[in-house]
C-alpha cells in the first residue's frame, strides 16, 4: 500500500506534517497488510507422526520457512523468560500452552523470517489456538497437511527419538495421545469441512512418506510461482546471495512486527571481555603520543583538503602513532558502579568486536625508542592490544616469506560473539559497521603520517584466515551448526572472523605493486609457522546465534586475484572555510570523539556547517566540469575498492535558514535516475537554496519530521533532538547479484566509513554524533517509498549538540584502572 500526500491548498509544510502523521498512524496500526500475504501451511498429526522430519525436507526442497510451535516453546522455556517454568510444566504434562503465548511467538517468527511461505508445524493444537491465530495474525491457513499415523508407530518413534525432550517418555506420551484425539482432531475436522486438509499416510520410511508429500506441495500455486526463483538460485553464488538477503530480512526490526531475535535481558555474568589477549606472547609497548600543547598532528581540515604531510619512515614511533590515533583507548568512564573504556574507533554498543593485527617490517632498535629483539630482527605479525597500547607478537616472518615491500599491512577480524551477546541475530550487521569505522579511523590516522591506505580486497577469506593464524579456532561447518540459538559452553563462539587487510604505504609516488597470486601462495605457507600466545577466554558461557555463523560463512569472499591491485588518485574534499574547524588537529578530533547519549533538542546548526559536513561525505571530492560523484577518491573513502553504493536520506530538524524536511544526498550520481523512480513520486527532488554547486543534495519534501525520525529509529529521542539525522540507503540486492554475496558485509563497511566521517566532522565543528543501529528497516523504506530490496537502509546517524551526563566520570585512557572492562 502506498501513502499519498493529499494535494490541498494548505501550505506545503502543513501538508507534509499531515503526511508524516498519516504515515506514523498507518504504520502503528498496520500489522500485516503492507506485507504480501504469507502462504500458511499448518502441519498436523499426532506426536511422533513425523511432522518435524517431513517439514525439514519440505522446507529444504520448496524453500518454506519451517516454524515449529513446539520448538519455539522449548526455546522460550530455556531462555529464562518469565513463562519458562510454566511452559516446562505444561509440556511435561502433555497439555497445551495458553494460546496467546504460542501465537505471539509464531507471529514474531513470521514477521522476522523474510520468507513468505510458512510451514507451521504442530499448531493449532486446539480450537482456542486456531481462533487465536486467525484473530492475532489475521490469516487462515492456505492448506493443512495431516500426517496420519497409527498410535503404536507413534509411540515407538517417540520413545526412540533420543533428543532429551522432557515429554519423550511413556507417561507423557499417553497423555499427549489423549490430548491429540480430544483437542487436535476437531481442528483437523474443522479444516476438512473447509476442504483444506490433505491427509498423508505417515507409515513408511522417511523418504517414502516424502514421496507422498512432494506432489501435493509441487501442485501449489505458490510453489509454481516461485519455481523460476528456485532455478535461479541453483548455483552456489546465487544461493549465497539468498542466504545474505534472508539474513538481512530476518534481522529487520519492525514498528509493528517486533524486533529481530536477540537475548531477552543481558546476561551480565557472561559479558564478553572486550580485550583479547595472547597470553605469554612477547610484548612490544608502543609510544604514547603527546597531547596538547605538544600535539604534532596536522590540522584536521588539512588532511582532507590539501596534500598530506611528507611520508614518515615505518618505525616504532610512527607505528605507535598510527595505532594511537586510530585504534587505542581514548578514555575510561565510570559511574562508580561500573567502569568501561572507550576507543578511538567507535563501536555500536561500545562492545568492540573489531580486533586488529599488524604485519610489519622489523622495527630497528634505537636508544630513545627501544624495541625488543623479536620485533627488531625480522618482519612480524602482531596482535594490537589497545588496553596497554602494545603489540603482542604472534609470529616472526623471515623476509622472503611475504612479498610486500615498502608497506605495512593492517588486518581486522571480528569477534562476532561480543556484539551477539547483547544484540543477538542482528549483531552481524553491527560488527560490519565497526569494521567500517576501524577502516576509516586507520585511513585518517595514516594520512597524518603521510601514508595512504587501500583494501587488499583481491584476497579471499581463506587467505586472511591463514594470515592471522586462525586455523585452530574455526566455527563448525554450517551443516554441523545447530538450527536454532543454543546456550552453553561453546568456546569456538569466541573465534575471530577475518574481515579484511589494508595495505599502508607512503603517499604520493608509485603505489606498491601487489601480485595477489604470489601473496596468496606465501600466505598458504604461514599456517605451518610457529604461532605464539594463547588467546584468553572471553566468557564462561555462550549463546550460539546460529544464523550469524551461517551468514558469515555464506558471505565469505572468494579470492579475486585477477583484478589486480590499484590505488585511486587522491582528490581533495571541498572546503567552504577552514574557520569552521577552529584549528582543531586530527588528534584532538579523533581522541575526543564520543557517541552522544542525548542531544539537546535546541541547537541550530549553521547552514554552511551543514553543507560542509555533507561535502566531506562525498566520495569523489572536487571534480571537473561534467564529472559525477561516485568513485572513491577522497579520504577516508579511498580505502574502499568499489564505487560508492551508499546514499543518505536526511531528516533535517534544525539547520539555520534551511526548511525542515526530508532531504537526500546522492553519493553516486549514476544511481540518481534509479533512486528517483524507486522512491515516492510525490518527492520534489529540488536543490536547496544556497547548496554548493558540487553537492548533490536534494530536498524531497518540506515539513517537521522530528517525530517521524524518532519513531523510525526505534522511538529514540536522540534521532529527533539532533540538528539532523539520517538513514544510509545502499543500493543492495543488485550489488549482491552483480558482484557476489561477499558485498553484503562490505556495504555495511561503507556505511561505517561514512559514519566515521560524520563522527569526526561533528566533533571537528564542536558538536557530536551517534551511530544508530536500531531502526525499523521496512518502515524507513515505506516512508521513502522504496519497495523490494533494490535499496535498503543499513545504518542511521544523528548529529547535534550533546547533553553530557554529569554522573559519568571521565578518566584518562592510560594508565587505565586495571580492569577488563
Ligand atoms: N517415516 C518415519 N519412519 C521412521 N521414523 C521416523 C519417520 N519419520 C520420523 N521418524 C522418527 O520419529 C521420531 C519422531 O519424528 P518427528 O520428531 O519428526 O515427529 P513429530 O511429529 O514432529 O513429533 P512431535 O510432535 O513429538 O514433535 C524422530 O526420531 C524421527 O527421526
Ligand atoms: O501449539 C503448541 C505446540 C506445542 N505445545 C506443547 O509442546 C509440546 C511439544 O510439541 P511438539 O509439537 O510435539 O514438539 C506439546 O505436547 C505441548 O505440550 C503447545 O502447547 N502448543
UniProtKB/TrEMBL annotation:
- What is the annotated role of this protein in its UniProt record? Catalyzes the phosphorylation of pyrimidine nucleoside monophosphates at the expense of ATP. Plays an important role in de novo pyrimidine nucleotide biosynthesis. Has preference for UMP and CMP as phosphate acceptors.
Q: Which residues bind CMP?
A: 129
PANTHER family the UniProt entry points to: NITROREDUCTASE FAMILY PROTEIN
Q: Which reaction does it catalyse?
A: CMP + ATP = CDP + ADP; dCMP + ATP = dCDP + ADP; UMP + ATP = UDP + ADP
EC nos = 2.7.4.14
> Where in or outside the cell?
Cytoplasm; Nucleus
Q: Give the residue ranges for region: Disordered.
A: 351-377
Q: Which family does it belong to?
A: Belongs to the adenylate kinase family. UMP-CMP kinase subfamily.
Entry remark concerning the domains of this protein:
Consists of three domains, a large central CORE domain and two small peripheral domains, NMPbind and LID, which undergo movements during catalysis. The LID domain closes over the site of phosphoryl transfer upon ATP binding. Assembling and dissambling the active center during each catalytic cycle provides an effective means to prevent ATP hydrolysis.
Q: Which Gene3D superfamilies match?
A: NADH Oxidase, P-loop containing nucleotide triphosphate hydrolases
What positions belong to coiled-coil segments? none
Name any one GO molecular function: oxidoreductase activity
Segments of skewed composition (Low complexity)? 365-377
Its name, as the record gives it, is UMP-CMP kinase
Residues annotated as binding ATP are: 48-53, 161, 204
Textual note on the cofactor: Binds 1 Mg(2+) ion per monomer.
Cellular component, GO, one term = cytoplasm
Annotated a ribonucleoside 5'-phosphate binding lies at 74, 95-97, 122-125, 165, 176
Task: Print the organism lineage.
Answer: Eukaryota, Viridiplantae, Streptophyta, Embryophyta, Tracheophyta
Q: What class of enzyme is it?
A: transferase
**One GO-annotated biological process of the protein:** 'de novo' pyrimidine nucleobase biosynthetic process
This protein's assembly is summarised as: Monomer.
Amino acid at each position: 500500500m502506498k501513502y499519498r500526500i493529499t494535494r490541498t491548498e494548505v501550505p506545503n509544510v502543513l501538508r507534509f506534517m499531515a503526511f508524516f502523521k498519516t504515515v506514523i498512524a498507518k504504520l502503528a496500526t498496520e500489522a500485516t497488510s503492507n506485507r504480501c500475504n504469507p502462504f500458511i501451511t499448518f502441519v498436523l498429526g499426532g506426536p511422533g507422526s513425523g511432522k518435524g522430519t517431513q517439514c525439514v525436507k519440505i522446507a529444504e526442497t520448496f524453500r518454506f520457512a519451517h516454524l515449529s510451535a513446539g520448538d519455539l516453546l522449548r526455546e522460550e522455556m530455556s531462555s529464562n523468560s518469565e513463562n519458562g517454568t510454566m511452559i516446562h510444566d505444561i509440556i511435561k504434562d502433555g497439555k497445551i500452552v495458553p494460546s496467546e503465548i504460542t501465537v505471539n511467538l509464531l507471529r514474531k517468527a513470521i514477521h522476522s523470517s523474510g520468507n513468505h511461505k510458512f510451514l507451521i508445524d504442530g499448531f493449532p493444537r486446539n480450537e482456542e489456538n486456531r481462533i487465536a491465530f486467525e484473530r492475532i495474525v489475521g490469516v487462515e491457513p492456505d492448506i493443512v497437511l495431516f500426517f496420519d499415523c497409527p498410535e503404536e508407530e507413534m509411540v515407538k518413534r517417540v520413545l526412540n527419538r533420543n533428543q532429551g525432550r522432557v515429554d519423550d517418555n511413556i507417561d507423557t506420551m499417553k497423555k499427549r495421545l489423549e490430548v491429540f484425539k480430544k483437542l487436535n482432531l476437531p481442528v483437523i475436522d474443522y479444516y476438512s469441512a473447509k476442504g483444506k486438509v490433505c491427509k498423508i499416510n505417515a507409515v513408511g520410511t522417511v523418504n517414502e512418506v516424502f514421496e507422498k508429500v512432494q506432489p501435493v506441495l509441487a501442485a501449489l500455486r505458490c510453489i509454481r510461482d516461485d519455481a523460476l526463483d528456485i532455478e535461479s538460485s541453483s548455483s552456489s553464488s546465487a544461493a549465497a546471495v539468498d542466504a545474505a538477503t534472508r539474513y538481512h530480512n530476518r534481522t529487520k526490526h519492525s514498528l509493528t512486527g517486533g524486533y529481530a531475535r536477540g537475548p531477552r535481558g543481558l546476561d551480565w555474568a557472561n559479558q564478553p571481555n572486550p580485550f583479547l589477549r595472547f597470553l605469554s606472547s612477547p610484548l612490544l609497548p608502543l609510544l604514547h603520543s603527546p597531547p596538547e600543547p605538544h600535539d604534532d598532528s596536522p590540522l584536521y581540515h588539512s588532511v582532507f583538503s590539501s596534500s598530506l604531510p611528507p611520508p614518515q619512515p615505518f618505525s616504532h614511533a610512527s607505528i605507535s602513532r598510527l595505532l594511537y590515533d586510530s585504534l587505542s583507548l581514548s578514555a575510561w568512564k565510570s559511574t562508580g558502579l561500573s567502569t568501561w573504556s572507550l576507543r578511538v574507533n567507535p563501536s555500536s554498543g561500545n562492545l568492540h568486536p573489531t580486533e586488529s593485527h599488524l604485519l610489519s617490517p622489523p622495527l630497528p632498535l634505537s636508544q630513545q625508542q627501544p624495541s625488543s629483539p623479536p620485533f627488531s630482527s625480522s618482519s612480524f605479525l602482531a596482535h594490537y592490544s589497545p588496553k596497554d597500547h602494545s603489540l603482542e607478537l604472534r609470529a616472526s616472518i623471515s623476509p622472503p616469506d611475504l612479498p610486500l615491500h615498502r608497506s605495512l599491512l593492517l588486518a581486522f577480524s571480528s569477534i562476532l560473539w561480543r556484539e551477539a551477546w547483547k544484540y543477538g541475530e542482528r549483531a552481524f550487521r553491527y560488527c560490519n559497521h565497526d569494521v567500517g569505522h576501524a577502516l576509516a579511523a586507520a585511513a585518517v590516522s595514516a594520512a597524518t603520517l603521510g601514508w595512504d591506505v587501500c583494501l587488499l580486497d583481491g584476497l579471499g577469506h581463506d587467505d586472511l584466515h591463514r594470515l592471522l593464524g586462525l586455523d585452530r579456532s574455526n566455527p563448525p561447518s554450517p551443516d554441523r551448526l545447530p538450527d536454532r540459538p543454543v546456550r552453553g559452553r561453546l568456546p569456538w563462539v569466541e573465534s575471530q572472523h577475518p574481515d579484511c587487510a589494508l595495505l599502508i604505504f607512503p603517499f604520493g609516488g608509485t603505489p606498491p605493486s601487489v601480485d595477489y597470486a604470489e601473496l596468496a601462495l606465501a600466505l598458504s605457507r604461514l599456517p605451518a609457522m610457529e604461532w605464539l600466545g594463547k588467546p584468553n577466554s572471553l566468557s564462561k558461557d555462550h549463546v550460539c546465534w546460529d544464523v550469524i555463523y551461517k551468514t558469515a560463512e555464506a558471505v565469505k569472499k572468494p579470492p579475486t586475484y585477477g583484478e589486480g591491485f590499484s590505488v585511486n588518485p587522491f582528490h581533495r574534499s571541498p572546503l567552504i572555510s577552514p574557520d569552521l574547524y577552529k584549528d582543531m588537529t586530527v588528534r584532538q578530533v579523533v581522541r575526543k570523539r564520543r557517541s552522544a547519549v542525548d542531544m539537546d533538542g535546541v541547537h541550530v546548526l549553521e547552514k554552511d556547517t551543514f553543507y560542509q559536513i555533507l561535502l566531506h561525505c562525498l566520495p569523489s571530492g572536487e571534480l571537473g566540469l561534467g564529472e559525477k560523484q561516485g568513485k572513491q577518491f577522497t579520504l577516508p573513502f579511498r580505502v574502499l575498492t568499489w564505487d560508492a553504493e551508499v546514499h543518505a536520506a536526511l531528516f533535517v530538524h534544525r539547520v539555520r535558514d534551511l526548511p525542515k524536511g526530508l532531504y537526500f544526498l546522492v553519493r553516486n550520481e549514476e544511481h540518481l535516475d534509479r533512486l528517483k523512480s524507486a522512491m515516492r513520486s510525490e518527492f520534489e527532488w529540488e536543490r536547496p537554496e544556497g547548496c554548493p554547486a558540487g553537492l548533490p543534495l536534494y530536498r524531497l519534501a518540506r515539513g517537521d519530521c522530528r517525530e517521524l525520525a524518532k519513531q523510525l529509529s526505534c522511538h529514540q529521542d536522540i534521532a529527533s533532538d539532533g540538528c539532523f539525522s539520517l538513514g544510509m540507503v545502499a543500493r543492495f540486492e543488485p550489488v549482491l547479484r552483480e558482484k557476489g554475496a561477499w558485498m553484503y558485509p562490505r556495504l555495511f563497511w561503507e556505511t561505517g566509513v561514512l559514519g566515521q566521517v560524520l563522527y569526526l566532522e561533528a566533533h571537528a565543528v564542536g558538536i557530536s554524533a551517534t551511530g544508530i543501529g536500531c531502526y525499523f528497516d521496512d518502515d524507513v523504506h515505506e516512508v521513502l517509498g522504496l519497495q523490494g530490496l533494490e535499496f535498503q537502509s543499513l545504518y542511521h546517524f544523528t548529529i547535534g549538540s550533546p547533553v553530557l551526563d554529569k554522573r559519568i566520570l571521565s578518566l584518562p585512557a592510560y594508565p587505565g584502572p586495571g580492569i577488563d572492562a
